[in-house]
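Repro:
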Amino acid sequence: MNGSLQQADRTADTDDHSSLTAAVRMAAAGDRCAFEGLIERFQGEIFRMVYYRTSSRMDAEDITQEVFINAFRGVHSLKDPGMFRSWLYRIALNGVRDYYRKKRVRSIFTLFSREHNEEHVPDKDSGQEHGQDRLERKEFWDGLDRFMSRLSASEREVFRLKYLDDLSIREITEVLGKNESTVKTHLYRAVDKFRKEQDVQGFLKGENYEYE
């Protein structure tokens, strides 16, 4: 029975990969409907990826829109359609980095002009929760932020891509442009620190801390 289920899962994964590859090829050939299908498929996870890093819904929406504009412009140059997802995450990561570069520049100009406009940063929640649920969710994100601050920049990014964005090791290597052993080393170190963390235990999917 288990063997049959595993075979069914593998078949589903193969079919899914094939449909994605076909859609990317059609989009690369100029099919707007095919690209709109790709937007519908990946928009939610790209938005979450950006939001985890900006804590601003408005900015995350703007960056996500720009990600897909850039993807539409460049999809014809993607050599391996099967790597579309990791390629999209790489565009998103560059978008976030550009966002922070621009933010630093704005801060410098604000300092020189002596303007002190404070930007409100909303809690990392849907805005629909109340009372104890909202408090617990805020405490979780505060704990996660404290944990992240104790990681190196490389450990932090690999950890996010693996457990917040749910990318595979192969996809992470594509997004970051690093080899597999380096990615696994950063991930191992981050997870080792996470095991000792009290604020956010029970967070990781699967609880097995796998590296594949």
